[in-house]
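In the current project phase, work has continued on tokenised descriptions of protein folds. One protein thus recorded appears below exactly as we store it.

——
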Amino acid sequence: MLGHKLCQVLSAESVTFTTFRAAAPDLAPFYSRTEPIAGVDALEFDSVSDAIARARPQVVVNAIGIVKQRSNATDPVLSISVNSLFPHRLAKRCADAGARLVHFSTDCVFSGRRGEYVEEDTPDPIDLYGRSKLLGEVAGPGVLTIRTSIIGRELENMTGLLEWFLGNAGGRVQGFARVTWSGVTTNFLAHTVARLIREAPDLSGVVHLSGPAISKYQLLVWLNEAFGTKTTIERDDAVVSDRSLVSDRFWSQTGFRRPNWSDMVSELAVEARMYEGIANARR
């Protein structure tokens, strides 16, 4: 979900190498300006090390992860290998190469029992995904771990909230009115990472990056309006959770402007035709 947006945004302003487990896909809007390196697998670290030696990067952005929506997310060996161990091995390799590392963690390091979490709060994950991502948080000179949560378009798998919602266009879905969320779009996050690389080269440690806290129900309402999907959204008050993050420190340290949902959702909708074209071409 995030990787292809990072490629699209970063390659517009810098030399960008992109790693793939298999051959590079023919998706011009996202990868045409990148330098592909195929055969790179997080479970085969020598392939990662070789890619770094070939690219000689100044910055490495790690968008590899086993997310909780995937069927293999219940495999503890895989989740711990990719989400927990790999980031630490990558951080060491980047340090040896003199490269900065930008890594992503998740709001799921918190249980959601309270909400409005700040960086100093003690994490209390309740599932394998949250625990494995917490163990994978890296900090230190030249390493930035961004705790966040995202929504955006996907090129495959289609397991995220937005693709699920668009796949039910015109139908009937439930929206959780008491589940509070403070994520950002992949578009916003990719552009923010580009700015961090340019304008905040010394920012390090674990930081929160969040959007305005909203309910999942309200988010679906806005998506419905922006995409014109004419979906009936039924309010559900049974499920209660609040993993909202407070990111005052991030905005203060960077001076960046906080996002708003009107802009972020509108930007997602503007790209709808491009993703429809890609989907049609792959059929």
